[in-house]
Design goal:
- The protein has one domain: Four Helix Bundle (Hemerythrin (Met), subunit A) (Up-down Bundle).
- About 35% of the residues are buried.
- The protein has about 270 residues and is mainly alpha-helical.
- Helix 1 runs antiparallel to helix 2, helix 2 packs antiparallel against helix 5 and helix 3 runs parallel beside helix 5.
- It is globular.
- A two-stranded antiparallel ribbon has the order 1-2.
- The protein has 10 helices and 2 strands.
Length: about 270
């Protein structure tokens, strides 16, 4: 393959991402929510592959970054928003429209911020804010699980009972969940970026074991496990942020006490 062909290769995956996003929108409009959700999941896979291919072939470019963001906005911004609107939000009238629009705008802002950092050459081991593919994955995987719940007597796919029991509650919580997801996308809460993970690090074996277990669960309980994985990723950023905040407050409190104790034990001559 020529050098020119190498530069086209990542864009083919990006185009596939965009096409699947558009198909998802059309399926959602026609009430085919399971197909629409799987199209979003396929877009996530294409999004991962286009980045990997670009790095492996060393064909990362400004065009690729911009094209990727435009595709992501459709597949992970517009498509999940329409999916949730058709499934849940349309019964809420104007508040439902507002939530759907807010999600898309937050996703666009998230992508714009990411592009600025990419063009400036800023690299980090973590993402700042919830990545938009993960946001879309949460909503699409919920839709897949809820469709199983709705068609419980007609399905042959294995499900996790405790997850299926919570589906009605999660369904009612979707408007709040979408607002939370939207805020997290434009927040400064750090999320792990697996693309920078090095398999030769000491904890690689433990992570590899978890990945294998996750794959086995996905094979056994596909829809439910995918939803759990995305939900855990969402919670990982929040819990990590809160843990670091608590540790920082404890450190500042300890430093203040040490400073106070040092001042109290100083002699009269030391205080002059």
């Amino acid at each position: 393959m020529t050098l020119h062909g190498l530069y086209i290769l990542p864009s083919l995956f990006t185009a596939a991402n965009l096409i699947l996003g558009l198909i998802s929108v059309l399926c959602s409009i026609h009430g085919e929510f399971t197909t629409a959700s799987w199209c979003i999941m396929g877009s996530i896979i294409m999004d991962v592959l286009d980045g990997r291919v670009a790095r492996w072939t060393k064909t990362t470019s400004s065009f690729g970054i911009e094209f990727d963001s435009l595709a992501d906005l459709v597949s992970f911004g517009v498509a999940p928003s329409i999916l949730m609107y058709q499934m849940v939000l349309q019964t809420m009238a104007k508040p439902g429209i507002t939530i759907a629009v807010f999600y898309v705008v937050a996703g666009a802002l998230r992508l714009a911020r990411f592009n600025i950092k990419a063009h400036e050459g800023v690299s980090s081991s973590n993402y700042m804010g919830l990545p938009i593919p993960a946001a879309a994955g949460i909503l699409a995987s919920f839709a897949l699980s809820y469709e199983l719940f709705e068609n419980g007597s007609e399905i042959t796919v294995k499900t996790i009972p405790i997850v299926m029991e919570k589906m009605p509650f999660i369904f009612k919580s979707i408007p709040i969940l979408m607002v939370v997801i939207s805020i997290l996308m434009i927040s400064s809460v750090p999320y792990a970026a697996m693309k920078n993970f090095k398999w030769n690090r000491p904890k690689s074996f433990q992570l590899f074991t978890l990945v294998v277990i996750g794959i086995m669960l996905v094979i056994s309980y596909p829809q439910n496990t995918i939803f759990i994985i995305f939900l855990l990723y969402l919670l990982s950023g929040i819990t990590g942020y809160l843990w670091r905040y608590i540790r920082l407050r404890q450190s500042l409190s300890l430093a203040a006490r040490l400073k106070k104790n040092t001042g109290d034990t100083a002699g009269p001559e030391d205080r002059k």
